[in-house]
Amino acid sequence: MNRFANPTRFMRISAAVLPAIGWLTALLLVVGLVLALFVAPPDYQQGESVRIMFIHVPAAWMALFVYANLALASAAGLIWRHPLAEIAAQEAAPLGAAFTLVCLVTGSLWGQPMWGTWWVWDARLTSVLVMFFLYLGYIALVHAFDDPTRGARAGAILAMVGVVNLPIIKFSVDWWNTLHQPASVFRLGGPTIVLSMLLPLLVMAIAFTILFFWLWLVRIRSAIVARKLRSLRLAGADDFAQLDASGGKPAGSYPS
Amino acid sequence: MAFATQSVSLGRSFLLLVYRDLRLAMRQGGDAAMVVAFFVLTVILFPFGVGPEPALLARIGSGIVWVTALLAALLSLDRLFLADYEDGSLEALALQPLPLELVVLAKCLAHWLVTGLPLAVTAPLLGLLLGIAPAGYGALVLGMALGTPSLSLIGAIGAALTLGARRGGVLLSLLVLPLYVPVLILGAAAVEGAVSGLGATPHLLVLAAIALAALPMTALAGAAAIRQALE
Questions:
Q1: In this predicted complex, what is the ipTM?
Q2: Is residue B122 situated within a structural domain?
Q3: Entry pTM
Q4: Given A73, A126, A212, B60, which is the most exposed site by the fewest CB atoms within 10 A?
């Protein structure tokens, strides 16, 4: 892992793989959406509304998956003090919050025709809402300090405390008798979904996963560039101050 | 104060630290009284808001008491480490032989004695005012006694993380309230269970389990947060 922790090497490798990942995301999203919206049959009970599930379920998986990545990156940042891991954790959080919001909104849109209500206070829904607020709390905490390193460290500790919510969300449908249905894909004895619906669901899940990694890489890259720019500006300000003191003129132009 | 010499055992310096915090709370006066006053006043607001109908108040009473207790505990959290952080005594506490993990737990214990315990003692009186069924009182007091330590412990992580942050108070509630949700659900459910005759024991046991699980988590995360705040 240390091999990839060098920002320069990270920038080189990520620049090489980024276009491929981007095109793969686009391809999978198109295939998945065509399968989900046109090829998959309407459900015998839910009718056409079942198609919301092809967005809702992958988004829910991503909400958990991104949090796991956020916690892993935070742990790496705390243990090895890699700046790259700290950046990675910070840049994952808004993506995770977005996936969680998509999950909540699509679930609500589906719940209105199916359950007859936009929202119920059941264990699964409530724990996902708590996860959304955990993401928001993390983002707020990271940006609450004048010293960015302190924000990153404090956020990392919070992210690792918040991991307790992951098993609660995953098993909430088994521990409590809720309106939300229990797991039907990852369960002992195989999935209980017919193949024509399972296939688009899996394609969408893979597309969302790769979409996350693509956006994550883009965000990490721009965060690294932003940091470089900031330190260049600071260095430029130092030069300027020195030249100013000696009465000379600055040699180069400065980024405005 | 002579609590940081080598000859003092860990247990004794732990108790001395708790004693110091309690004395500070007593001398400055009114931490506990203010928390309880907030608790009582906010609960009293509800009959004005939702109407004085006894059946309605009896039904939502346990929820009102628990939500208000949560907010009252939250109010007192920002002073848990902040005063010591600002006057530098937190650095002295971090340098003494007592591990920082135990310092955090000692401060949580003092915080609980000053806020959680008075809340648990006041709760039955408020239950009486709201007309909660008599069968629920045991569960209310026991639930408070088992649940408020978790409020102090989980809150301590948030208080340690927000040391030196801008808008620390608002940020603290954003961090801590989501993590308080399980305590609230179980505490209110215990009273409901006792009133409806289903029994409060499972809820109370899970509340106790949360408090026990929060002990090591707070010790580790709180100490880590304080260390990075003092760096």
A1: 0.81
A2: yes
A3: 0.83
A4: B60
